[in-house]
Amino acid sequence: MSKEYLSFKEAMSYMGFTTYDSLRKVIKLGLPVIKFGNSKRISKTAIDDFMQAHTAVVHPTTRKEF
Questions:
Q1: In contact, 3 and 10? CB cutoff 8 Å
Q2: What's the pLDDT tens digit per position in 5-62?
């Protein structure tokens, strides 16, 4: 059974981030954080929902050769 509630470090790994700054930016954009005493956790479901809601289709630009 995998964990549903992740530490910040585990959440960063799950999301593919290498810095806390990236995680802080996502939290400022609305990723919910669960605070319980001195502990802070992030739900995997919340991460998945947040990432899905912020998914954008990016079209590659065509590079012209000269």
A1: yes
A2: 999 999 999 999 999 999 999 999 999 999 999 999 999 999 999 999 988 887 777 6
* DSSP alpha helix (H) spans, 1-66: 8-15, 20-28, 44-53
Q: How many CA atoms lie within 13 A of 7 on its CB side?
A: 4
Assess contact for 31 and 17: CB atoms under 8 A.
no
* pTM (predicted TM-score): 0.78
Give yes or no for a contact between 42 and 33, defined as CB atoms under 8 angstroms apart.
yes
Q: Which residues contact 17 (CB under 8 A, 6 or more apart)?
A: 23, 26
The helix/strand/coil state of 53 is helix
